[in-house]
Amino acid sequence: MDRTPLQYLVSGRDQSGYVSLARATTVAALKKARELLQEGYIDVRICTPQGRILLSDEFDQFEA
Q1: 18 bridge partner residues
Q2: Residue 24, Cβ neighbours under 10 Å: how many?
Q3: Is 29 exposed, middle or buried (0-12, 13-18, 19+ CB in 10 A)?
Q4: Measured between alpha carbons, how far is 56 from 35 in angstroms, rounded to an integer?
Q5: Which of 18, 31, 37, 57 has the smallest CB count inside 10 Å?
Q6: What are the residue ranges in the chain where pLDDT is below 70?
Q7: How crowded is residue 44: how many other Cβ atoms within 10 Å of its Cβ?
Q8: What are phi and psi of 61, to 5 degrees?
Q9: Are the beta carbons of 6 and 35 closer than 8 angstroms?
Q10: pLDDT tens digits, residue range 37-53?
Q11: What is the rounded distance in angstroms from the CA atom of residue 56 to the CA atom of residue 64?
């Protein structure tokens, strides 16, 4: 049985469509989400391994 570790899913949307990227750690997920925002993506969010959805205005709280 494959035991793939739980991952964070970072997603966002731009004029060409949606992107959804997996990251292994909180730090990596936050970094990628902030990069997407800087590149002009909208609706950027992080889904935690527990299923919690974090919107961009919640990223600072998540880091603490």
Answers
A1: 13
A2: 12
A3: buried
A4: 12
A5: 57
A6: 1-4, 63-64
A7: 23
A8: -65, -35
A9: no
A10: 999 999 999 999 999 99
A11: 14
